């Protein structure tokens, strides 16, 4: 293994030792899904009945003017009791004002609000990798799946590819949809942080599906030498065969950085 990759392995092993304990392995699913980038298209062409929930109405905005007289609240985000509450929730999330978020939901802001434009509450919180905001949103039952595709959690991809292990762990544990573990590991290997790859590996997410897919291949093609080091440390198989081609040979064909090719070849015991 090359010096850089060996150093990466050693430093990662020291940093991660004893952090995330192993959990039961989940069976790898054979379907190899590529990363989805779908964004809900609002409620266009979707017929949604009006839900009367204590004055909340889907597709409308809640106001608190009947609760208290118009004034502002002494939080970082000034709360206006005469204005719709839902846009103010978004402002509070973007500002990282957790007290204002809690106050707005107490006043009646609708947690299942569907934005005509912009992001869902959860997307805004994940964009900041704000674990406390995500916890607040989960506590009030904020929407995670768009109306147009209730099988898709809008929080998973941005969390896995931009946030640390604590946020990713929370998002995966609280997701309302079935998790495609191969897809999530693929995203982490090619675009995530090393601690996220470690988290998933130690929670039993698949590292390869023999004959079809390998997280090592995803990390190698993306040039993620840190992810390659972590995956090798966590037990990814450098001798796996994908579509009839050994991984060490496959990554060499794909124009992978030399140091990564050398590391995988060395781990696989391939000379030359």
CATH C-level of the largest domain? Mainly Alpha
Mean pLDDT: 80
Could you say what the CATH architecture of the largest domain is?
Alpha Horseshoe
- The tally of helices reads 13
Low-confidence stretches: 12-60, 65-73
Global geometry: elongated
> What is the beta-strand fraction?
under 5%
**N→C terminal distance:** 12 Å
Protein structure class: mainly alpha
> Share of helix among residues?
40-55%
**Helix and strand sequence:** HHHHHHHHHEEHHEEHH
Round the Cα radius of gyration to an integer and report it.
22 Å
The major beta sheet can be summarized as: 2 strands, antiparallel
The largest beta-sheet arranges its strands as 1-2
Count every beta strand, where a strand is a DSSP E run of 2 or more residues.
Answer: 4
- CATH third-tier fold name of the largest domain: Serine Threonine Protein Phosphatase 5, Tetratricopeptide repeat
Number of domains: 2
Relevant terms:
two-stranded antiparallel sheet; 272 residues; elongated; mainly alpha; Serine Threonine Protein Phosphatase 5, Tetratricopeptide repeat; 4 strands; 13 helices
